[in-house]
Specification:
By secondary structure, the chain is mainly alpha-helical. The protein is built from 15 helices and six strands. A hairpin with a 4-residue loop joins β4 and β5.
Length: about 425
């Protein structure tokens, strides 16, 4: 029996480095030959070393031929446990459709690129509402499928990821790059008008934390007095363990569900007065800066029911607590206040718009991307850079004014003469 694992170099191939090995002999003593190609030598050498070590430990020489149902089960056990509740729901939706489309007994190694394209292209709405599925929603399915089959490749359930493409024929659903959803940029003047319409210090404090400090809505409504340092003008976004009186809080990093990204953010000078007043009244609401006394009592009751595994606030029994459960009707009330403030909503508005506006204001003011990424809690600047690429009317006016100054009559170049 051939037990060697060989490393070969064939320069004419697109991926010139090959690792080859043989499987177990069949009833006729024939061994099937397997190979894996690599673009770079160091990748091939690492794979060669790991493969030989695996065979020396007695691991199977032939690839594991699992079904899609088995892959979904393994992925759920190994990966989904680290994700938030909302992410689990999203993955569950995709995995359910994936299993239904291909069939639970389909061998993972048999899923081809053409079928992957067809799956993404044929996704439709599942809620019964009219209209097609948006590119953004299809992209979520694509991201989930890529993650699942990337795990399959890593676990050697498959040789390649059929949902990943590097180049290829244009128009493939696997090459989609959906544009971000439009959103309403709240300008500083519009924000001041919103504050003028807001009559409670707790609500004004919440708006300041989202718009002035860039906190997510769940972070703002979980903020406690102990984490606000008015003397240093900083607010600290930190994890909090659950108690009998208060639910837990976990900071979630952008696109990084396995770890939390705690951070410290400066407080604008203009926010100090409203935050100070909210802190004075927070003793009535368990130390929560943005909660009224009445809302705090409601949160305590919901948290008690959640701990006991009973239905609460429309949530099914056993549903885990989420950061946003601290709030109630906030988006509805905020839209009404914006209308009262004379702010015309010409694009979709959500509570996350405050955080996006915070980022856009910083980008327009020239804050370096790496600094803004740190303030927002982004793991890298890839997400942050979208705000520097967003062209607003103000950006265009500033660019035009800059060109006017450069080309003004009588202006001389510093290099002239």
């Amino acid at each position: 029996m051939n037990t060697s694992v060989s490393l070969l170099h064939e320069p004419k191939r697109q991926k010139p480095w090959l690792v080859r090995w043989y499987g177990e002999p069949d009833e006729r003593g024939t061994q099937r030959r397997y190979s894996k190609a690599f673009r770079y030598c160091h990748e091939a050498k690492a794979f060669h070393t790991n493969k030989q070590a695996a065979f020396n430990r007695g691991e199977p020489r032939d690839p594991v031929n699992v079904t899609l149902e088995e892959l979904v089960e393994d992925f759920g056990e190994a990966r989904l446990s680290t994700l938030s509740y909302a992410s689990k729901i999203g993955y569950g939706n995709t995995l359910g459709q994936l299993t239904s489309y291909f069939g639970p007994g389909r061998k993972v190694r048999e899923v081809r690129r053409r079928e992957a394209e067809a799956f993404i292209a044929t996704r439709t709405r599942q809620d019964g509402r009219p209209g097609g599925l948006s590119d953004w929603s299809k992209a979520r399915h694509l991201i989930h499928c890529r993650a699942v089959f990337a795990a399959a490749v890593a676990w050697e359930y498959a040789d390649e990821n059929p949902f990943r493409t590097n180049g290829g024929v244009g128009g493939s659903p696997l090459r989609m790059n959906p544009k971000g959803k439009p959103w309403q940029h709240i300008t500083p003047d519009e924000f001041r008008r919103l504050l003028a319409q807001t009559d409670t210090p707790q609500r004004r404090a919440a708006y300041w934390l989202m718009y002035g400090c860039g906190l997510r809505a769940g972070e703002a409504y979980n903020m406690m007095v102990a984490n606000v340092d008015l003397a240093a003008r900083r607010v600290h976004v930190v994890n909090r363990a659950a108690t009998a009186d208060a639910p837990p809080f976990t900071v979630k990093a952008e696109r990084q569900s396995e770890s939390s990204k705690e951070r410290s953010v400066p407080i604008p000078e203009a926010a100090i007065a409203d935050l100070t007043e909210a802190m004075r009244q927070a003793f009535k609401s368990g130390g929560f800066l943005a909660l009224t006394e009445e809302r705090f009592r409601t949160v305590q009751e919901h948290w008690r029911l959640c701990r006991e595994g009973k239905p609460w606030a429309g949530a099914d029994a056993g549903r885990p607590w989420q950061n946003r459960n601290m709030m109630n009707n906030l988006l509805r009330d905020t839209k009404q206040l914006l209308i009262a403030a004379g702010v015309e909503l010409t694009a979709p508005f959500t509570l996350h718009t405050f955080r996006k506006s915070f980022a856009q204001n910083h980008a327009d003011a020239g804050t370096p991307p790496c600094t803004l990424a740190k303030l927002l809690g982004h793991t890298n600047t890839r997400v942050t850079l979208q705000f520097y690429n967003r062209v607003t009317d103000a950006n265009e006016r500033a660019a035009g004014e800059a060109m006017d100054r450069l080309l003004a009559p009588g202006r001389t170049s510093a290099h002239a003469g």
